[in-house]
Amino acid sequence: MGLIELLVLLVIAAICGGLGQSLAGYTAGGCVISILVGIMGAYIGLAIARSLQLPEILPLQIGGSSFPILWAIIGSAVLSAILGLLSRIMRGRRL
Questions:
Q1: What is the pTM assigned to this prediction?
Q2: Could you please report the per-residue DSSP string of 11-62?
Q3: CA-based Rg of the chain, rounded to a whole angstrom?
Q4: In the chain, where are the structural domains located?
């Protein structure tokens, strides 16, 4: 995977992470956090899909690798919801 493919993958991960955070109603930070949430969301979404034996929907081929767009958005939303819940719990303990 070359530099261009990596940059395209990071931009797509940021978009998926941002969409997932918007769906969950919790944003943890800026663009870098959206990229991390998008990449981790892709892994979480694929794990959910594989455990439920669901197909990979909307895969995007980048540099010989497949990036599951829909599962990345779903996984990002799940991850953001969990982060938002943990954030509320931690703020409640400090007060």
A1: 0.84
A2: HHHHHHHHHHHHHHT---SSHHHHHHHHHHHHHHHHHHHHHTT----SEEEE
A3: 14
A4: 28-94
Closest CA to 34 of 51, 49, 15: 15
Residue 75: pLDDT above 70?
A: yes
Q: What number is the average pLDDT over the span 45-72?
A: 88
Q: Which residue type does 44 have?
A: I
Q: What is the pLDDT of residues 12-38, one digit of tens each?
A: 989 998 999 999 888 877 888 888 998
pLDDT of residue 56: 84
H-helix or E-strand spanning residue 65: strand 65-68
Q: Residues in the chain, how many? A: 95
The one-letter amino acid at 55: P
